[in-house]
Write a structure and sequence with these properties.
With 350 residues, this protein is of the alpha+beta class. Helices cover 31% and strands 16% of the residues. The chain contains ten helices and ten strands. A four-stranded antiparallel beta sheet has the order 1-10-3-8. A hairpin with a 2-residue loop joins strand 4 and strand 5. Helix 2 runs antiparallel to helix 9. It is extended, with a radius of gyration of 35 Å.
Length: 350
């Protein structure tokens, strides 16, 4: 009897341990953070708070809108659309054949009159309308590694159809470079040449990091179909600033690209004579070409949208503040007692 006791007691302990349920709960350890019981600010939107908030927004936004709008209005622009005016009369009904015929004279004379004082620097832009630089196949048709280093000259896999010419890689390859804008502008004032500085028109980060100093144009525009401007094969890509500006593709179909800077003041009523070469083909897709001369303000170029947006939001908030004030004064409504709110009666939320 005594000999069987230890064995039965030992077995009982083991069976009790194995029968005990294992605790495998994923319930997090209790804390005020996990149970969302931390002190919190729960504002009650009384009429006074709402009216004050709308009034504060209007007081801040309306002056900003006025200042932004005046800054934009201080910018002086001269815009001249010329793609139709520079067509000979006998080609008005056949524009594409004119631009594709190398024998036709593409020179065109335009006259610009300065309406207001334009202080230096005066930025010269060309503007293209209905040109979709944001098209997926167009944007992808380039080789960043080729532009950056001479050792990647053969990396043209993404550049089709402008990747190879006579069995040799094109540098720079791709449709973006191939379609480089090639209209030119010469300015004169009082029978004297008006210099246009074309240095420093691109981003410094692009010149230093994206376009190599040891990469030179090669086999560029050598095909039967010429897309745009030719490049000087003796000048590295890091110094071809027209190309660098063009390669930074635009997000919208209407865009401006910087052509150069006029570094002298232009007085009111001065007449600028422009001799331009109308080389770039926008007639195939009904595009428009414009020459733009513009000053800048502390806010940038001419753009009324920012000022109008601030004025619109500020004016709307002011109107709402007045409307709520009138409603509050004419037909007031007694507020309930906040002490009856659930989180005030039971702070734990239970």
């Amino acid at each position: 009897m005594s000999s069987s006791t230890p064995s039965s007691s030992a077995g009982g302990v083991g069976s009790a341990d194995s029968a005990a349920p294992r605790r495998n709960s994923k319930r997090p350890k209790y804390s005020k953070f996990t149970q969302q019981e931390l002190p919190a600010c729960k504002p009650i939107l009384t009429p006074r708070w709402v009216i004050s908030a709308f009034m504060l927004v209007s007081i801040v936004f309306i002056p900003i809108g006025v200042v932004s709008l005046f800054a934009s209005r201080d910018v002086v622009e001269i815009i001249d659309r010329y793609e139709t005016a520079c067509l000979p009369q006998n080609y008005r009904n056949d524009k594409v054949s004119f631009i594709q015929n190398n024998a036709t004279d593409k020179a065109c004379n335009r006259t610009l009159t300065v309406k207001k004082l334009m202080k230096q620097p005066i930025y010269v832009y060309y503007q293209l309308d209905n040109f979709y630089q944001n098209h997926r196949r167009y944007v992808k048709s380039r080789s960043d590694s080729q532009l950056k280093g001479r050792n990647s000259e053969d990396d043209v896999s993404a550049c089709k159809p402008e990747d190879m010419s006579n069995g040799q890689p094109i540098v720079p390859c791709g449709l973006i470079a191939w379609s480089l804008f090639n209209d030119t502008y010469d300015f004169s004032l009082n029978n004297q040449q008006l210099a246009v500085n074309k240095r420093g028109i691109s981003w410094k980060s692009d010149r230093d990091s994206k376009f190599g100093k040891d990469v030179f144009p090669k086999n560029f525009q050598n095909g039967s179909l010429i897309g745009g401007k030719h490049l000087d094969s003796s000048v590295p890509l890091s110094e071809q600033e027209d190309l660098i500006v063009w390669m930074r593709t635009a997000a919208l179909p209407t865009f401006r690209k910087l052509y150069g800077k006029i570094e002298r003041d232009l007085q009111p009523n001065e007449v600028i004579h422009v001799t331009l070469q109308n080389n770039y083909n926008t007639y195939s897709f009904n595009g428009k070409k414009k020459l733009v001369l513009s000053t800048t303000s502390w806010l940038g170029g001419k753009n009324d949208f920012l000022g109008i947006a601030y004025l619109t939001v500020g004016g709307l908030c002011f109107f709402l503040a007045l409307s709520f004030t009138v409603v509050y004064l004419v037909k007031p409504r007694r507020l309930g007692d906040p002490s009856y709110l659930s989180w005030n009666r039971n702070p734990g939320g239970h």
